[in-house]
Amino acid sequence: MRRAADVRTRGHGGGLKVGIVGAGVSGLAAARALHQAGIAVTLFEKSRGVGGRLATRRVGSYTFDTGATSIAPRGMGIESVMLKELDTTELIEVTKPIYTHVNLRVQPGDSSRNGVPRYAYRSGCNHLAKLLAEGLDVRLNTQVDQLKEVDGGYEIENDRFDRLILTPPIPQTSLLLWSIGQSRPVANARYRSCITLMLGYDKPLPDTPYHAIIDVEQRHPMTWVCLESTKSPGRAPEGGSAVLVQLSPGYSHDHYQNEDDVVLKDVLPYVAQLFGPEFREPVEIDTKRWKYSQPETVAVFESVNRDQPGVILAGDGLSAGRVERAFESGLMAANLILEGQ
Question: Domains in the chain: how many in total?
Answer without folding.
Answer: 1
